[in-house]
Design a protein that fits this description.
2 copies of one chain form a homodimer. The radius of gyration of chain A is 16 Å and the shape is globular. In chain A, the strands form 2 sheets. Chain A has a 6-stranded antiparallel barrel. Chain A has a two-stranded antiparallel sheet with strand order 5-6. Chain A is built from 1 helix and 9 strands, in the order βββββββββα. Chain A is an all-beta fold. At the A-B interface, β1, β4, β6, β7 and β9 of A face β1, β4, β6, β7 and β9 of B.
């Protein structure tokens, strides 16, 4: 298989206009700002029964990602790191992933969410229910990121 | 933006040969079987520093997914559900997502993992570190899937 072709199913509205405005992750700001995921009309039937989930995974296309760098020194760190050990946007397939809190519908096909970290207008690729049974691993080790876990907005960007 | 083009960075080895062999999710089998994610040589430098993470997100291309159905009745359920409220493979952009336990390197560029649910030979798209601080939501509500959370292998497929 040489190539895989995707098509956006909608787009994301966030308060972040440029990459420099984006937080390091969607939960860095307190409280995380209200954002929206709006599906194109032809995909909205797929949202049936989503109401009961309190968290969702959103997958999105990091359309303004810089060229991929397999090894780079993050702005908040002193050592070069492998891109697959980071959430940085400049990766071979720049797909963004966020766990967002779902706060209900804000119009037809328009989901109100908190926890996004990406630029306003980012193309949406997929919505999946977050399942605590398979997806929550509160004891997961943070690896080289452990010393940075408490850092705030403006000091870099993990995703 | 009309089209987005991706390229596999490697492939996944699992004990599941057909879709019918796949568990409903990668944590359904106890214990979850050992699987591998092998990166192509040109992407292996990106794995630097991944050692310290105990869980990873893997994104993969569900290359044998059936045609997308926006609304369908899951095999283990009695009501039609919207595809974005499921982890089913037949979705507009069939990208699979799994939280896997990382059990170290099993060769150069070859990660030993547990928690995969997909067919042997599935193309790998991305590897991301799982961060308990942003990604673990143990209290997340399971929505319509709550009554099915305990079901076992062979009764259907969520992802």
């Amino acid at each position: 298989m040489a190539e895989i072709v995707l098509r956006p199913i909608g787009s994301l509205t966030t308060p972040f206009r440029t990459r420099a405005d984006c937080p390091r992750n969607g939960w860095q700001l307190d409280p995380p700002p209200l954002c929206h995921a709006e599906l194109l009309p032809e995909f909205r039937d797929g949202l049936r029964d989503i109401d009961g989930f309190s968290y969702l995974f959103l997958l999105y296309w990091l359309h303004e990602a810089p060229a991929p760098q397999l090894v780079f020194t993050p702005p908040f760190d002193a050592s070069p790191r492998g891109v697959f050990a980071t959430r940085a946007p400049g990766r071979p397939n720049p797909i963004g992933l966020a766990v967002v809190r779902f706060e209900g519908f804000a119009g037809e096909g328009r989901l109100a969410v908190r926890g996004l970290d990406c630029i306003d207008g980012t193309p949406l690729l997929d919505v999946k229910p977050y399942l605590a049974t398979t997806d929550a691993r509160p004891d997961a080790a943070l690896g080289w990121l452990a010393p940075h876990a408490g850092r705030k907005h403006g000091e870099g960007h993990l995703g």
